[in-house]
Structure formats: structure tokens, C-alpha cells
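Quick board copy: two proteins, each given as sequence then C-alpha cells.
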Amino acid sequence: KRVVDGQGRPSVASMAGPRRVFSLGMLPLALLQAFFMIALAGTWMWLFGVFWTFMVIELPKDLGPYSQMSSLSMFLHRAFPMRETNDISWEFKFDHVLILACVMTLLMMGWAPTRSEIHEQADADLAKANKKSKAKKLAKALS
């Protein structure tokens, strides 16, 4: 709906179009969020490396030569092998951090509603409005 002022012209508020995809004013916030996600992914990879090193390398050393690896240690050793370092340290590169940041960002994004979801929401809102108006009419008739 377009709201008109006293002279029949559309008001300034109703002339505002849909929200723009790119806005120069939002660029600093977007860069800050991107750097935060890269820092979060880098921290995650570093902490995982510390945990992997402890579970796969240090813990079996501490348990002695005749002990078996725990199931979690064996899982980490098989699921995340470090053949490049001959399983003596956990290493990752910056592209691994970027990939993890992109995947985490995609997992946290909200999906846009589909056309049918928009129609269902509009129908639900209309039914709710009709229910409220019927309740008001009934309350008015009873009083």
C-alpha cells in the first residue's frame, strides 16, 4: 500500500524501496564479521591441533609401550591422519582456516523463506487477525 499525504502525493516513507543487497555503510560491519569468523576458525583449528597432538601422540607415550590407544585416540588418528608430518604433529594452512570459516558461516546463515512459506505465514496472520476481530465484535455485542 502507498500512503498518501494531504495533497494526494505518496509519502516519503512509502516510497522507500526494498532493502538493498549492498550498502556501503554496512561494509565495515561485514569486514569485522569476516575477520571475526577467520579468527574463530583459526582458534578452533589451533585448539583442535593441541587436542589431536595430546590424544594421538602424547597420551600413548605416557601410557607406555604395551598399552593400547583409547578409542577416541584411535578415531582421531584414523579420521584426521597427518601423513605429511608422519603423524608427529598437527599442521594446517591458512586455506584450511578459510575453508572452515566459510563452512561455519554457511551453517549459521538463515535460509530465505520459500514462496509457499510466505503464503502460509500470510494466511496464518490473516486468520489470526480475523479471530481477533471476531472476538472484538463478540465482546462489543455482549457489552
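And the next:
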Amino acid sequence: TFCFQPLVSSIAGLGDTSSPTDCQEAEAYVASVAIDGQLAHHWRFFQHQLGQGHWVTVARGPTFDVVDRLGEFASTLKVPTDSIPLQEWQVELERPSPPFEVLTVEDLVPEDLVMDFRRHAYTDNAFGLG
């Protein structure tokens, strides 16, 4: 069970909400989660609106909750959560979630290649554009 709360508390009349669709004025939400009826204090979720009707959720949780049968993902984790003092972990969970920045494909092209990209993308119709 998730309980979403708007990150924008200054909007009049928001109150408690249970879903991002309950309050379209907010662009970001924070959530806690209950698993089998028990609040999971070591987890926090942030949900950001990306344009009209699109949302992305970022989860912060401890590495000891990772289920990775093959061990491939777990091997990429640099610092096990149980090696972090509880107070520091709580600070990390409470840190604000930075907003997302929407980029175009062209935004990802190195500056010195943008003109080549534009020429090929828009004149050769290589990407179905134009």
C-alpha cells in the first residue's frame, strides 16, 4: 500500500491524497509504503510528473532488500546500506528528490556534431522527422 503526499504543500486545499491523480496541481509526490500492513520505514518513493499524464517514480531503499537471483545488479552496489549508520541513512531517505529534466535526442548529441545530426535527421528523414 502506497500513501502519496504532494511535495507542494503550499497549494490550498490539498490535504491528504492517496494518488497523484487526486491533485493535478502538484508536480511531485512523496510516498511511504506498507508491506503486509507494516510501514516500511527504510523506504521512500518520489513521483514526478513528466508532461501531461506521464509520471516517473524513484524508489530509495536499503541494499539488503534487493532480490537479485543472478547477483548481477547487487554486484554494482558500492556501499551496503547496513554499513551506513542509521542516522545517516535516515538523512539520505529524507533528502529531496531532484526534478527531472526532459531532453530531446538532439540534446544528447555532442555540440560539435549537432549540425551533422540536424542535416541527417531532418533532411535524410533518418528518424522519420520532417
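Board note added afterward: The radius of gyration is 20 Å.
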